[in-house]
């Protein structure tokens, strides 16, 4: 009799799954939607992808299943091709950096103008203002549907040679940078020697003394244990690295409105969670409280600056005067790239900031 009851229960579960699969098939949904994620699952960016997938399943009652592929596995590491592959429908969706989409969406470089955006309040005005909408409009024009913002964070400088306080301190430093011409121009203007390489090669370069430093957000520096390679860190907020959750436009437009609404809600909630992870301990208690009160999540490292100092790093926070010196040194790059990005987007960003 016990065997019979278990069998009936198993049959009932099977019937439910078959019914859900039939509903999804009848609605034209795929069994699974592939999501490109550049980083691994333990970085905040990756945690945001996992949260998005969980929320999509929950909010669509299992009709839409998103599977994150971490470490650019779908692109064999070629992360700069993410937006093209999503636009073509080869990949369904992504949570991606504005840095990675900028070769296709040059308007996204508004966040990478050196020393233009320097705090979270200003960043939010631009992300959720006219300039942010201009970036989204440019994505839609390329057959990509943007769903919501998340964040990798303001990018900070670390190195093994000197505590950087002035542009003169940068002279001759070999700095690993991402493969974006704007970043290369910026470091050359500061007298450094920018080197574009993937992260695995960069770590070997640090160990062998081939590369002196790198630039990344705090939320990346701690998981990769940057203190193993570098003694010095300069918190300079020289550029910021927002993330965008986006979907193939044709596929998105074929979803019924209730599914679109559910996935949009998932993207915005996951984006809020991931943004709070990236800002935790850097904006007072604000993001720590969002994580605790809204997501029942407690940060393992609630004070990232103190944590890195506890690992033996020397950390310098730029003063306003010091920051202005860096801004002046990179002004030619700033002016050049306004033209590349589009003066109209830049003017929208300035208007957003002024509000």
UniProtKB/TrEMBL annotation:
GO terms in the biological process aspect are: transmembrane transport
Q: Where in the cell is it found?
A: Cell envelope
Q: Which UniProt keywords apply?
A: Signal, Transport
- GO CC terms in record: outer membrane-bounded periplasmic space
Q: Which InterPro entries match?
A: DctP_fam (IPR018389), TRAP_DctP (IPR004682), TRAP_DctP_sf (IPR038404)
Q: Which Pfam families match?
A: DctP
Question: Which stretch is the leader sequence?
Answer: 1-27
Q: Note the superkingdom of the native organism.
A: Bacteria
Sequence similarity: Belongs to the bacterial solute-binding protein 7 family.
The name this protein goes by in its record: 2,3-diketo-L-gulonate-binding periplasmic protein YiaO
Q: What is the originating organism of this protein?
A: Pseudodesulfovibrio hydrargyri
């Amino acid at each position: 009799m016990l065997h019979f009851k278990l069998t009936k229960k198993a049959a009932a579960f099977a019937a439910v799954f078959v019914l859900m699969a039939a509903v999804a098939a009848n609605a034209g949904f795929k069994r699974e939607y592939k999501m490109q994620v550049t980083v691994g699952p333990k970085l905040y960016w990756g945690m945001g992808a996992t949260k998005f997938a969980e929320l999509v399943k929950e909010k669509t009652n299992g009709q839409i299943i998103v599977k994150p592929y971490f470490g650019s596995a779908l692109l064999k590491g070629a992360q700069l091709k993410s937006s093209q592959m999503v636009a073509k429908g080869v990949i369904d969706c992504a949570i991606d950096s504005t840095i990675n989409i900028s070769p296709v969406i040059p308007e996204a470089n508004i966040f990478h103008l050196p020393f233009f955006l320097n705090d979270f309040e200003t960043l939010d005005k631009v992300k959720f203002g006219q300039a942010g909408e201009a970036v989204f409009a440019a994505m839609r024009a390329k057959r990509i549907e943007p769903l919501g913002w998340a964040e990798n964070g303001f990018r900070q400088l670390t190195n093994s040679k000197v505590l950087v306080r002035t542009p003169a301190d940068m002279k001759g430093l070999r700095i690993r940078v991402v493969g974006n011409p704007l970043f290369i121009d910026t470091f050359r203007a500061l007298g450094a020697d920018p080197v574009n390489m993937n992260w695995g090669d960069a770590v070997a370069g640090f160990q062998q003394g081939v590369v002196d430093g790198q630039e990344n957000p705090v939320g990346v520096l701690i998981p990769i244990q940057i203190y193993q390679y570098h003694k010095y860190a300069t918190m300079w907020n020289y550029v910021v690295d927002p993330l965008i959750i986006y979907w193939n436009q044709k596929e998105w437009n074929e979803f019924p409105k209730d599914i679109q609404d559910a996935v949009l809600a998932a993207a915005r909630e996951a984006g809020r969670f991931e943004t709070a992870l990236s800002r935790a301990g850097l904006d007072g208690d604000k993001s720590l409280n969002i994580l605790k009160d809204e997501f029942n999540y407690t940060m393992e490292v609630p004070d990232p600056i103190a944590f890195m100092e506890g690992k033996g790093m020397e950390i310098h926070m730029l003063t306003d005067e010091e920051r202005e010196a860096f801004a002046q040194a990179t002004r030619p790059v700033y002016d050049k790239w306004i033209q590349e990005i589009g003066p109209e987007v830049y003017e929208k960003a300035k208007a957003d900031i002024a509000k």
